[in-house]
Specification:
mainly beta, eight-stranded antiparallel sheet, about 1450 residues, 20 helices
Amino acid sequence: MSFCDHEHCSFIRKSIGQSNPHSYHVGYEAIIVLSYRQQLVNLNTLAFVHSGYHWQVWREFSGLPVVRFSAVRGGALLTRGGIHWCHPLSMGIPIDVTPRQRKIRGKGALPMGPQNRNGVNSLCFSLCLFTPMMSRHLDTDSGILDDHKFIEGRTLETSQECMSIVVSIDNCDGHLVSDLLKLAFDSSSEFSSSHSPGFAKLNRRDGAGGWSPLESNKYQWLQMDLGERTEVTAVATQGRYGSSDWVTRYLLMFSDTGRNWKQYRQEDSIWAFEGNSNADTVVHHKLQHSIKARFLRFVPLDWNSNGRIGMRVEIYGCSYKSDVVDFDGKSSMFYRFNQKSVTTVKDVISLKFKTMQSDGVVLHGEGQRGDYITLELRKGKLLLEISLGDAALQTINGRSSVMLGSLLDDQHWHYVAVERNKKQVNFTVDSDTQHFQTKGEFDVLDIDYELSFGGIPIPSKSVTFLRKNFHGCIENLYYNGLNIIDLAKRHKPQIHMVGNVTFSCTEPRIVPVTFKTSSSYLLLPGANQMNELSVSFQFRTWNGDGLLLYSELHKASGALQILLSDGKLKVTVHKSSRSQADITTGVNLNDGQWHSIHLSTRRNRVSVELNGEAASTAHATTQTRMYSGSSYYFGGCPRSLIDAAACSNTISAFQGCMRLFSIDNRPANLILVQQGLQGNFSDLQLDLCGIVDRCLPNYCEHGGECSQSWSTFHCDCTGTGYTGATCHNSRYKQSCETYKHTGNTSGFFFIDPDASGPQGPLLVYCNMTEDRTWTIIQHNNTKGTILHSSPRHKEPYVASFNYSANMEQLQPMINSAEHCEQEIVYRCKNSRLLNTPDGAPLTWWIGRTNEKQTYWGGSSPGIQKCACGLEESCLDAKYHCNCDAGRDEWTNDTGLLSYKDHLPVTHIIIGDITKTSSEALYKLGPLRCHGDGNYWNAASFNTESSYLHFPTFHGELSADISFFFKTTASSGVFLENLGIKDFIRIELNSPTEVLFSFDVGNGPSEVIVKSSTHLNNNQWHYVRAERNIKEASLQVDHLPRKAEEAPDDGHIHLQLNSQLFVGGTASRQKGFLGCIRSLQLNGVTLDLEERAKMTPGVKPGCPGHCSSYGNLCHNGGRCMEKYSGYFCDCSYSAYDGPFCKKEVSAILEAGTSLTYNFHESHGIGKNVSTHLSAIYSDMTLSRENIEFSFRTTHTPSMLLYADSYYQEHLAVVVCSNGSLQVRYKLDNDKGADIFSIDGTKLANGQLHSVKIDREGRDVYVQIDQHPTLRFNLSSGTDTEFNGMRSLTLGKIMDSRGLDEELLKANAWGFIGCLSIVQFNGIAPLKAALRHPSTAPVTVRGHLAESKCGISGSAGSRAITTTHPRADHPGEIEEGKLQTNAIRSDSAVIGGVIALVIFVVFCVVAVMGRFLYRHKGTYRTNEMKGAEYTENTDAALKNHANYQDSVSEGKKEYFI
């Protein structure tokens, strides 16, 4: 919730919306905070901030209305505002702030509006005083306070309720360059004396009208000395007057000493300013963060291609005052308390520091009871340790430590703040803040005697080893409102100093060098022909490989190389490509720390010392003496040496920083190198170290591990459950519903309800039943627990339940579910539950909201009843629960809790278990939820001008957007969000192309995915776009993901401020026509349906899901439309389950009989349609389609028997030899046609599938995956099955008319497993098991449902389920023989089969008569299977059942 989302703040939105947020106006709301230049201050120094920034920064704080505010002119009341809000933790007290008349320094009109008669702006406020704990967010260095400098006020009076304070405001936008002398300007070079840097003042025409260097290249710069450290808030540039010389892009650098420069950075990247487009127009840039420095340098990057570099500049700001103390690494300073010890509940410490040393104690304090606080530099990072423990306990439970920052030993100022409120701690280093809570049970910090700054001079109780003192400077050191350095400068008795402590900052004269690219190198000269040499330098880098030094030795004594290899230092001396000496030392030297190298050679001995440690010194000996050369190449080699193969090109160039070069014990003068007077260089940045820690802040999300090189970083997402360049994308679906509709069946799954949000995935069980999908979350106590009376214990019994996921993970899952429930059971014996209707409940439960709930299962919130109370069926009508009757017998109150905002149950508190005879049993079921309102949330856009609008999308660093769409339009914008310059847009650019475009300040970028098929085919298509600081990507359906890398050191923040438009644009052009569903932004689903209800031209929901998802209904199942999704109707299928893929199987014992009666007047039952009833009423069939699976070891067996009223029948039996026999008798005057499939023993206990299809005289039989065999009924035989009566599985109870062989098979019936039995669209086995009371089925004997039909063995049934027709367009339609499906997978095989058909055609004709009259022989007769493939398609397409089911399955039902 934003700061101003409350109804009481409507006046704020009005006033701010009508005013310029960058200026102050009378009537604006305001706030006084204890913050001044990022330091804690007392009541004498206050900061003022206007509302525009206040409500943006403080939006996370909401609370109670505290005070009113008002603004006056000259003491007269002008306006009165409304209620102003203060957070309850602020401990706010009213303050009356009345500015007095005071002379304001600086130039220009103050933007405060009306002034009093003395020209001073006056404001009067009555508002809330915030504590320093919260004022950190309003520091000036973060740019929040705009460009106004805040001058110390003066306390007039104080009381318990009111303080009157003087506040004066001075603008920090004065002109700093216009009054500088020419001597204050410097440059890399000048074209002539009239082009010197002294003429580079804005709007001046002196000299040649500005500065121009001798050469226009990337090594030029213009510099100003402001005389003292100054606060800079803005810059402006022009080109050289009346010329074609201007700069189009430049960098800004700053320094305190004119050495060791630092680049101005913004958004954690180097900021390149846009320059001029002509010579005279002034281009202003206001700095997002002000700079405090003495020297400023402009570095041109690009300039007018038709001219030269030319600049005139201005710098805006004001003077900067600070208190500084310098420690030499052996000194320290103490602040001693007025009493023996100090106990604090809150502490605020703030300071700035700069140092070249990577280690040192900045601050330390400790107490007698084990409390302590330490702030210490360790390897260039700042470690904060706080212990609120008790020494008497001999534990370290109260100790907490946090490390922040990186590369802090760069001799630049770094800001630090530590703010503690009891256990809550905010630790800030520069712009990075970490919030944490101290361990242990204590809230206070006890410090004895003193705090030390700069070191720990004597062994302390809390420090078990010696630590280095701090060596560097500290500025503006405040401890709980006290200016420690100011007290020291005034020689106050509370301050004690040890060693050499001074109040000015010593600046070492060090010139670092940055090697940026593979072409960078630095050439330094050395003494030639010496029989010994000495080279030393320091380096820091993130790259594990790189050339540090190359030098050709004199007198053909070889070449010397120092390089990094896999983070180790390697020194080689080689001659004629043969190594003379090798030294390898060190490890992990690419850790970003400074490392020193000292190499020396004397005659034929080489020694290397690493990091000044004698123990690390390594030696090697060469076969010949070595003589020094005259040139030393650092970081790389020039192209000439590489081309000549002198400097090996197999070694990558060094990227990093170096400093403190020394050759032959003489320090190198890099300023002479920079001026071109000594040595040479290429593509370097001299006088600065440009190393950046790209893992700070860590942009790897969800616990991803960050590693880096010089130019980029990498996120290792192993074990996080997330993927992507920044571990942003969840590997898992958001719900069980999503898993179901991607074709999964019941089982355990990880789901991630908030997708890319902060909560991790959770393991759930997805029960995917026919009508709905249940998500089940277990807890640790699912069994019933019996409680016996305990009169001695008067306290209630508390049962706690811990779930497999925490509440933060469960909340998004529960919120998106359509329904959640949890069964709660309470069985009681003389143990009351909710007591009397008017009495206090004796038992209650606590849920997710951590609130007491007094309703029981089956009831609703606010109704203190059990289920029987609502139904008025309790054992005793006087009570609302059965247990409340208090009977001395077991009774029960069980029901479902279904108000999902209260679920899950975390505690049950049972109170009435203290009586002697009391007993109780409680049991809590798992949390069960079904439905996913997010997955089917959709809207239909009916006009191009219609759209939905939502609040601004906030995806500054990571933005992922996903949705489904379907349309018939050729183009349209799915969504768009604009900023001042930034934007993000996803659109259908053409029927085959989706375009993702955006701009974060580096210019527009596009990612395009092209499809080979049209996307406007009115089918659902999935789109997912992501943009992070490393890359932008776009995924459409299952097409290859397209990605574009982000530029190095470019803008990274996506800054949007308009509404989010869905289905259109702000211009109402290129609107989208169609449906958008499940639109998610960074894991949050937008409620399209709710917004569509109130938007013209847009309708909630979208029909026609079966057009896209119908292929998920298998085995004859029909896709049926629902408002939110679809379901598979399996009534016409022998299969069951949500997608008609679950086999329905049963075990039949000896004598078991299942008979399906066609003639019964009540119809065919639930699984046969009306048109089938009509077919069977005339008792005639001209074709049969039969399919089933079986498993048996018993022979002979009767599998299936169909008979008629005219003594006609069809029988399928397993013969005594294990073969299959199909018997048709369709003519009373003739004997049965018997078709035997020999060659395979089917009574082997394995699962076998059988498919029998008859069309007229042609009978086709397929077993498992073997080729289909074709048989023919005898000539002259009637082809119609007349007067169908019944279908029997297993034993035939009426055996009259059976021949001898059938009687043998029928003796036992069938013993074994039958599965997925289907006869012309009728599923008798499924009807008997699912609808025994309504289906026309008679069962005798034992029939038990089983999973015996599931087998790992291959069968045609497996092919049917794994290769449905919808997944493979062009395959045979459902109901056709699957041999075609097997062969249609390969066109080549089909061609071969066609050739075989042609060759053996004559043979088939000759054998035809034999096949009509005799048993078929089962062999691998591929020609007959192929013949069936060609001839049966047309016949089977006319099957009425099939035609109707297919046509109905393709229908779309619009609601």
